[in-house]
């Protein structure tokens, strides 16, 4: 179940030949585009995402993949303390454009991480809640911490409490909250290849409908949310959202022939 096999049947020779996935997809493309000898065809291989992933067996897990994975991860961490090492390794190597985030090389083990978190917690508890991170950034670098924990003392303390709870007794809800607050998403690409994608005079054109309005509204809200999250994480990075669509030379009075078009109401979002 869940495995496809592809075959070619020769009705003249009454023979059956097994096809590879690539051969089958190439045949389907020729049905639409005609015979093609182009060697540079776009291929998307999603198989690596399935490698060694736990698979839910209950129907109640359908649609709740994130919760299922968090329960799975937290149960492994609870049974085997060594399974915390990959989390530590990730926090140590996490970077963006060469800027280290979360932890640096001063923290080499889970025990040293717990000790550093305890010292940081003690220091933060003596500060005013709204103390900006810049005022204790140098001290925290010496302890082994980099930017990304929060913009103020109270936000950094909340984040560190989550990690301390995970190290002490992993819980799926706490793990989900902690992972969701780690700064990781700074660039978003949205593919919209159909129709005339533009900001004006496009509705009613072939293959163009309400999805244009929907995406434009969503990216404005998305940029605002990303900017707010990055600020709360204590970072000053600039996010970018890019809507990738077709470049149409005969634009019919629209802007669909422009290579790059900034979306009105945004600063860092383009078509």
TrEMBL record:
GO terms for biological process: sucrose metabolic process. It comes from the Eukaryota. The keyword Chloroplast does not apply. Residues 174-271 form the Sucrose synthase first GT-B domain. Its EC number is 2.4.1.13. Pfam families: GT-B_Sucrose_synth (PF00862), SUS_EPBD (PF24862), SUS_N (PF24861). Residues 64-151 form the Sucrose synthase EPBD domain. Keywords: Glycosyltransferase, Transferase. It catalyses: an NDP-alpha-D-glucose + D-fructose = a ribonucleoside 5'-diphosphate + sucrose + H(+). GO terms for molecular function: sucrose synthase activity. Sucrose-cleaving enzyme that provides UDP-glucose and fructose for various metabolic pathways. Belongs to the glycosyltransferase 1 family. Plant sucrose synthase subfamily. This is sucrose synthase. It comes from Pyrus communis (Pear). The lineage of its organism: Eukaryota, Viridiplantae, Streptophyta, Embryophyta, Tracheophyta.
